[in-house]
Design brief:
single chain, 58 residues, alpha+beta, two-stranded antiparallel sheet, globular
Length: 58
């Protein structure tokens, strides 16, 4: 999650509340869920993120 790009739409938290949440008005990855990028619903949340703030590291 790139906090410099996120503008707090909340789509990620609505789509995958087990991985994402809004904190102080911005999307964040929940502790312990940083490795969830392979999950299809997380990929979908990234695809639908209006600010394209969800990024995956290799």
């Amino acid at each position: 999650m790139d906090p410099d790009v996120c503008y707090g739409s909340g789509d990620c938290g609505i789509r995958v509340p087990t991985v994402f949440a809004l904190v102080d008005g911005y999307g964040t990855v929940l502790p312990g869920r940083e490795g969830a990028g392979d999950e299809p619903e997380v990929q979908e949340a990234a695809d639908w993120c209006p600010s394209q703030a969800i990024r995956f590291s290799e």
